[in-house]
Amino acid sequence: MTVPLRPVSAVTALAEELRRRILSGEIPPGTALPEQELAAAYGVARPTVRETLAVLVHEGLLRRERNRSAQVVEVTGADLDDLMFVRRPLEDLTAVSLAGRRVAEADEALARMAALPPDAPWSEVVAEHMALHQALVVAVGSPRLERLYTVLAAETRLGLVRLRDSYPDRDVLVAEHRELLDAIGAGPAEAARRAVAAHLDHGWGGDLP
């Protein structure tokens, strides 16, 4: 039985486009996004733009103050240090909980990342990176851990924008995550913890993960 596909709404389409441009670094942190200019540029009504911006504010990619245009969130060095202060114990807990298990969804996200064409937008790499780490967290089976990790997702994605120049060869990023998944899958717990710590130190410690 064939199920008809629903057309993508203008809000969804515009949100996907702006999200892509933000996560690729095309729209830099701190950039203002005036409603009128977006409406003219994309040929949509201002209410559509307003609703789209609300979606991206909710995701944490934009911030908005009263009587001012929405702006792309700027994650500072201090923000990143604090993000890692919170993220490290969550990643460690995840590694210990999953040691000795393979997570099929994480492997699938890695396979999709590896299969992206060389000229794929960085935003697509970010999407698969986030899907991989989210799959690990979900596999633990703790709703509270999942909620905590989700709160950090927006800042993590924005941090990954800065990682773009650190990985001109995406195969290196793929290899690093394959090593991480292999270490967690093989166990034991202490080896999985060391692999996660090394992964975070190499990425976020120098530039980001």
Descriptive account of the structure:
- The protein has 209 residues and is mostly helical.
- The protein has 2 domains: 10-72, Arc Repressor Mutant, subunit A, CATH 1.10.10; 77-203, Up-down Bundle (Four Helix Bundle (Hemerythrin (Met), subunit A)).
- The chain is built from 10 helices and 3 strands.
- It has helices spanning 10-23, 35-42, 46-59, 77-98, 104-115, 122-140, 143-151, 153-163, 170-186, 189-203, and strands at 32-33, 62-63, 70-72.
- The protein has a 3-stranded antiparallel sheet with strand order 1-3-2.
- A hairpin with a 6-residue loop joins strand 2 and strand 3.
- Helix 9 runs antiparallel to helix 10 (189-203).
- The longest helix is centred in the middle third of the chain and has 22 residues, at 77-98.
Short description:
This protein is mainly alpha-helical and 209 residues long.
Search tags:
209 residues; Arc Repressor Mutant, subunit A; disordered N terminus; transcription; 2 domains; Four Helix Bundle (Hemerythrin (Met), subunit A); WH-like_DNA-bd_sf; 10 helices
Taken as a percent bin, the fraction of beta residues is under 5%
Named at the architecture level, the CATH assignment of the largest domain is: Up-down Bundle
Please give the order of strands in the largest beta sheet: 1-3-2
Helix content range: 55-70%
CATH superfamily of the largest domain: GntR ligand-binding domain-like
β-strand number: 3
Structural class: mainly alpha
Mean pLDDT: 87
Largest sheet: 3 strands, antiparallel
Total of domains? 2
What order do the helices and strands follow? HEHHEEHHHHHHH
- Dominant shape: elongated
Radius of gyration: 18 Å
Q: And the CATH topology of the largest domain?
A: Four Helix Bundle (Hemerythrin (Met), subunit A)
- CATH class placement of the largest domain: Mainly Alpha
